[in-house]
């Protein structure tokens, strides 16, 4: 992958800004490693687990009406695992010591995820040769919406009544 060197440069900048960072991995949403700096952690396994966690996180945010996936934070007894969206087709996973400033981790992780997303998305974008040869896009299909059924007005005929015996 041509974007591997710039992604590794981004990892080096991240480590300088967040000293408690112990590892970084960029992976496709399919679980394939794009670039990694994860000493002591097997990158292919981490990428596969990240993809699985991402799948669950996407379903949870969707099921609860929270919109598109942005980030996932897990804390263990020895530190943090944070995963951030990185463009349309990738994620950034960061490993950090327990004493990390979580606000700083989020700030730098979000920024790095955006930059890595730009790199990966630019590489994945198709090369346009000429406007005449580009295929016309199909219009987006409307999203079905739920509508409430109107309630019938209560009348004396269908209202509940209580009678005393």
TrEMBL record:
It comes from the Bacteria. The lineage of its organism: Bacteria, Bacillati, Actinomycetota, Actinomycetes, Kitasatosporales. It holds the Pfam family Robl_LC7. InterPro entries: Roadblock/LAMTOR2_dom. SMART domains: Robl_LC7. This is Roadblock/LC7 domain-containing protein. It comes from Streptomyces sp. R11. Residues 8-96 form the Roadblock/LAMTOR2 domain. Residues 143-165 have a biased composition (Low complexity). Residues 124-165 are annotated as: Disordered. Gene3D superfamilies: Dynein light chain 2a, cytoplasmic.
